[in-house]
Amino acid sequence: MGCSKWRAAFNFGLLKAQSRLPVFLTMILIFTYLFYSLNGYCDSLPRPVFDRRSRNEVAPQGALGAHSASPLREQLEKGASLSGNISIANSFGSKKFPQAIIIGVKKGGTRALLEFLRIHPDVRAVGAEPHFFDRVYDKGLEWYRNLMPRTLEGQITMEKTPSYFITKEAPRRVLSMSRHTKLIVVVRDPVTRAVSDYTQTLSKSPGLPTFQNLAFRNVTAGLIDTSWSAVRIGLYAKHLENWLRYFPLSHFLFVSGERLVTDPAGEMGRVQDFLGLKRVVSDKHFYFNQTKGFPCLKKPEGSSRPRCLGKSKGRPHPQIPSEVLLRLRDFYRPFNLKFYQMTGHNFGWT
What we know:
The strands form five sheets. This protein has a five-stranded parallel β-sheet. It has a three-stranded antiparallel β-sheet with strand order 3-4-7. The chain has a two-stranded antiparallel sheet with strand order 1-2. It contains twelve helices and 14 strands. Residues about 40-90 have low confidence and may be disordered. Helix 9 runs parallel beside helix 12 (about 320-345). With about 350 residues, the chain is of the alpha/beta class. About 40% of the residues lie in helices and about 15% in strands. The chain has helices at about 1-45, 70-80, 110-115, 140-145, 170-175, 190-205, 210-215, 230, 235-245, 255-260, 265-275, 320-345; strands at about 50, 55-60, 90, 95, 100-105, 125, 150, 155-160, 180-185, 215-220, 225, 250-255, 285-290, 295. It has a domain at about 95-190 and about 230-310: P-loop containing nucleotide triphosphate hydrolases (Rossmann fold, 3-Layer(aba) Sandwich), CATH 3.40.50.300. This is Sulfotransferase. Its EC number is 2.8.2.-. Belongs to the sulfotransferase 1 family. InterPro entries: NST/OST, P-loop_NTPase, Sulfotransferase_dom. GO terms for molecular function: [heparan sulfate]-glucosamine 3-sulfotransferase activity.
């Protein structure tokens, strides 16, 4: 009797254990699945990148959103200083001082040149004019470097501020940044350039005196007023003399503003060679806009229309008396000839 009870209890316990075994095995399988799933998810997350030079932890590209306000993003935007020419290094690239600067001249075609250059995959440029070397130099070089876009190895950093060419202190300041900086000057017939300069100012200040009243100290005597900036900028030889005190002529490229209109691909070829770039920007990128009177960039892939410069470019010039223009040409002639001699290039301004 006792053995029967014991056997019955044993069989009941065995049956109960057998009924729990599938549940137990199922739970083991579920936990195993969850473990490997979570492990694989963690492995797929972006890992921090460490810059060997600075040992600073830098977030990967996918981890920083466009509107992130994390402390790390704020540190990147402020620009933690590193030695040498690199200020911020991460998976986006590095912020560097510009290796090339378009230093002049106003109303010569500098904006067109910069926009044409930005087609090139190896060129990264600041959009707005920084005016660092002429207006805000006291902010310091680190502040200036932090304005630059990040570049990858093999890319060059550029900026343009046309007023550098006529600023006395600019050459010395650029030299203190780097003696290897390449300098591009876009020049244009100084008479046409002066009229274009006046046209731009007139559009902002309709009550401006006439061109001839501003250009001459005495209209009757024909004395030119070189204190007027529209006239003074066109004295290219005098401005170049100042720059040549600090940089050799081999550091300069003088781009013809006229050829940039009539033969943009040819002039861009010279610019790309000077910068040590492969000739990527070519005829296939341009078409001539008859309305504006200068070349525009053809429609890029994925865009619904071609890209031309803004409405401020290609304004019709006011009528200037021919005798005023002739006197200005006579005034500029000796300065132009000297500029041709200094640069070794005849721009044909007659």
